[in-house]
Amino acid sequence: MSLHLTLIGIGTGNPEHLTLQAIRAMNAQDLILIPNKGAGKDDLAQLRRNICADVVTNKTTRIVEFDLPVRNETTPDYRQRVDDWHDAIAAVWQATILSHSGARKVALLVWGDPSLYDSTLRIAARLDPQPAIHVIPGITSLQALTAAHATVLNEIGAPFIVTTGRRLRDEGWPAGVDTIAVMLDGGCAFQTLEPKGIHIWWGAYVGMQEQIIEEGPLAEVSDRIIARRAQARADHGWIMDIYLLRRD
User: Fold this and answer.
1) Is pLDDT above 90 for 22?
2) What angle do CA 183, 189, 195 make, to 5 degrees?
3) How far apart are CA 10 and CA 239, in angstroms?
4) pLDDT > 70? residue 205
5) What are the distances in angstroms from CA 148 to CA 31, 122, 225?
6) CA nearest neighbour of 96 among 112, 86, 107
7) With 69 labelled, which of 40, 131, 173, 196 sits at a CA distance of 20 to 30 A?
C-alpha cells in the first residue's frame, strides 16, 4: 500500500493559527511525527504536542516523536552540510514510519507554511519509495510580523525581496528594491548596513504568547533589538525572529 505524507502548516505555534483544513487533516492521519531538536529546544516539540492535544480527537491517530539529527557544522561547504543533514533526516523519517506497521497516512507539522524558507518538502523528496505528498498551507511568519505591527509588506506597485541574514550580511542590500524581509538571521545582519534612512519592523515569537516586537528607525532601535533578542534567547533557549527593512 502506498504512503500518503501530509505536510501541515501550523503557523507560528499559536493553535488559533490552524485552519479548519489543517485540523481535519490532522484527525485523518494514522501517524503524526514530532521532531525532538535536543536540549534547550524542547519548547518547540512541546508546542506541537500542545497543538495535537488541543485538536486531535481521533483516538486512532498516533503521535510519535523522533530525535532530529544534528547538522555537521565541520563540513566546509554550506550546501553540502545542508544536503547531508537532509539525507539524515529523511532516513530517520523513513525508519520511524517503517517501525509503525500499518501507518499509511502520515503527517508532519511545519512551522509557518511548507513553501516559505522550509526544507520539509525537499526532505520528503528523498524518501524511497516516494510517497504521495499533500500540503496544507499555513500562516507564515511574514504574515504574523506585518499583523503584529499593523503594517503592509509592500509599497503600492513596488516589489520586495525575501532573503536570509547570511545573504544580507555577505551581499548587502539587494539591488532594485526598497523593501526586504529577512528570515533565518542568527546574527542580526542589519548591523552591517548603513542605518541612515532605513526603518525596521522586528519581531520574535510572532503570533505566540511570548511575542516581542520593536519598530522604528534602524539607527535608533538596532541596539535595543540586539539586547532584547539576546535576553529572549537566554530566557527560552531558542528564538525565532524575522524583520522587515524599508528605505525611506
Assistant:
1) yes
2) 115
3) 17
4) yes
5) 34, 30, 16
6) 107
7) 131
Predicted TM-score of the model (pTM):
0.87
Q: What CA–CA distances, in Å, run from 73 to 81, 193, 241?
A: 7, 27, 22
Distance of alpha carbon 181 from alpha carbon 113, whole angstroms: 16
150 Rama class: left (phi>0) / alpha (psi -120 to 50) / beta: left
Nearest to 30 by CA among 94, 105, 101: 105
**Residue-wise over 40-65: b if at least 16 C-beta within 10 A, else e?**
eeeebbebbeebbeebbeeeebbeee
Contact present, 179 and 244 (Cβ < 8 Å): yes
The CA distance from 153 to 146, in Å, is 7
Would you state the cell numbers that stand for residue 45, as one nine-digit string? 516539540
The percent of the chain in helix, strand and coil, each rounded to the nearest 5, is: 35, 25, 40
pLDDT of the residue at 43: 75
40-82 pLDDT, tens digit each: 667 778 889 999 999 999 999 999 999 999 898 888 888 999 9
Residue 153 per-residue DSSP state: S
